[in-house]
Amino acid sequence: MSPALNSPKEIHRWCRNFPGTRAQISEARQFVTSYLGDRPETDTAQLVVSELATNAIRHTRSGLPGGRFGVTVHAGIDLLIIAVLDEGSPSVPHLCQAEDEEQSGRGLHLVETLTTRWGIHGDETGRTVWALLPLTPKHPTA
Ligand SMILES: Nc1ncnc2c1ncn2[C@@H]1O[C@H](COP(=O)(O)OP(=O)(O)OP(=O)(O)O)[C@@H](O)[C@H]1O
Ligand SMILES: [Mg+2]
User: Fold this and answer.
1) Would you say 32 and 16 are in contact if contact means Cβ atoms under 8 Å apart?
2) What is the tens place of the pLDDT at every residue in 75-98?
3) Residue 83: in which H helix or E strand, if any?
4) 59, 113, 130: which to mutate for ligand 1, most atoms within 8 A of CB?
5) Ligand 1 contacts CB of residue 70 (under 6 A)
6) In terms of residue numbers, what domain contains 117?
7) How many domains does the chain have?
8) Is there a domain that residue 104 lies in?
9) pLDDT classification of 5: cutoffs 50, 70, 90
10) Is residue 123 part of a domain?
């Protein structure tokens, strides 16, 4: 059973690797939800991990046969970081220009809109794309 996030005083970090297939996107969403539980930020965190994991599968070697991606959830007192590690690609995560956006190029705009900050670490051999969002502190029960 997963330990739920219930103490406002601790910093938690959970990591898991997933096979790089589309079916694993919902597993990644479930992974995030299982730790955050029923909180105002859970829906946003699910959307963010979906977009980042989809990008890992679609745009990097994580989506090739045998590929994998990793998800890390950092939950602090009042902030949450969702990070997705991929297996790299020559392309770099970027916000697409408006003219590219008719059919695609919306995922990272959505992440930018929903989060306080997002960023990238790594290079073409493997990148982590992370996003930070505020977390409503839970008050301890009396
Ligand atoms: N993890 C990644 N590694 C390398 N390149 C990436 C990664 N994520 C995104 N990109 C690049 O950034 C671009 C923009 O990503 P974004 O998620 O906004 O759009 P998209 O994935 O092309 O389309 P959509 O998300 O709307 O289906 C991508 O087209 C791709 O070139
Ligand atoms: Mg995308």
Assistant:
1) no
2) 998 999 999 999 999 999 999 987
3) strand 79-85
4) 59
5) no
6) 12-134
7) 1
8) yes
9) low
10) yes
